[in-house]
Amino acid sequence: MESVAEWGLTPLSAVDPEIHDLIEHEKRRQSHGIELIASENFTSFAVIEALGSALTDKTSAAPAPSPPSAFRLDPARWGVNVQPYSGSPANFAAYTALLNPHDRIMGLDLPSGGHLTHGYYTSGGKKISATSIYFESLPYKVSSVTGHIDYDKLEEKALDFRPKLIIRGGSAYPRDWDYARFRSIADKCGALLLCDMAHISGLVAAQEAANPFEFCDVVTTTTHKSLRGLRSSMIFFRKGIAALAVASKQATSPGFKAYAKQVKANAVALGNYLMSKGYKLVTDGTENHLVLWDLRPLGLTRNKVEKLCDLCNITVNKNAVFGDSSALAPGGVRIGTNVIFCGMCTPAMTSRGLIEKDFEQIAE
């Protein structure tokens, strides 16, 4: 058996001269050349020293640490996974955590400056990466005139396509990003928002680029580009997303079944009481959690109903019913969660313990 001195202390030049020569050649190339590849950078001696330390011998399966201080994140709100080895696996890990196979995604088109992992496929429909194979992808693009992202077209596409995830990020987009607009678009179509800031994470840390953490649900990054670290990656996640898993688990409990039945019963009671008073409900009733109250036969405007309800500390919102001449001027209001009539939603109040007789009183 070899001694430790034989196998453990022999230098690379003796163990593998070919690899040693490649490293020396790369050192000379880096020191004598001008490095203009946007995805590359020079790391520090301290980082190289840490990478070659005794920690290399350690297998770590520890829980995620607190987010790096460079990004000034609240550990109570943000968690981080530092296990992915590079950006592409980090992105795919995030996708598989948030999505099911064949869920819909939208990312910046590769010719517009996007990245292969954001769902790219060729104009002929050839799927290039695992992202486009496992998920249904529709790219958004930059303006052919300005080269900037066309946010209006993005919103139009998103509202039509209804993706479950919108990906903000690119590998060849030279402008900053309007995260507030992305957040607005994602909210309108019910999507999660993921930022791949691999290229600009160093700028974000230095506050020289817009901060995605204020608006995004998940943020991924490599650590070796503008951040000047080792070749690795990180996945930042809002801790509130974990609440989705908790809520899903709670929905499997027997108590949740009873709650859902009461929600429907309350909606039926509310609808029946309104109809008994002569009011018109869309579809003449309900089979789920809401009733749709068509206000047009009453000649009431949505603004008047909203103001009257506000005086009673009841919050409603406008929406359209089938047959309206314009969705911009809806003929009704939504109470709780639906459209141009009164859409009255029962789950929230059912969660507070109300039953049928209580909803009859609400209707009155």
TrEMBL record:
Residues 12-60, 70-241 form the Serine hydroxymethyltransferase-like domain. Keywords: Pyridoxal phosphate. Pfam families: SHMT (PF00464). Its cofactor is pyridoxal 5'-phosphate. GO terms for cellular component: mitochondrion. It comes from the Eukaryota. It is an enzyme of class 2 (transferase). CDD domains: SHMT. Pathway: One-carbon metabolism; tetrahydrofolate interconversion. The keyword Membrane does not apply. The keyword Chloroplast does not apply. Its EC number is 2.1.2.1. GO terms for molecular function: glycine hydroxymethyltransferase activity; pyridoxal phosphate binding. The modification N6-(pyridoxal phosphate)lysine is found at residue 225. InterPro entries: PyrdxlP-dep_Trfase (IPR015424), PyrdxlP-dep_Trfase_major (IPR015421), PyrdxlP-dep_Trfase_small (IPR015422), Ser_HO-MeTrfase (IPR001085), Ser_HO-MeTrfase-like (IPR049943), SHMT-like_dom (IPR039429). One of its GO terms (biological process) is tetrahydrofolate interconversion. It catalyses: (6R)-5,10-methylene-5,6,7,8-tetrahydrofolate + glycine + H2O = (6S)-5,6,7,8-tetrahydrofolate + L-serine. Belongs to the SHMT family. This is glycine hydroxymethyltransferase.
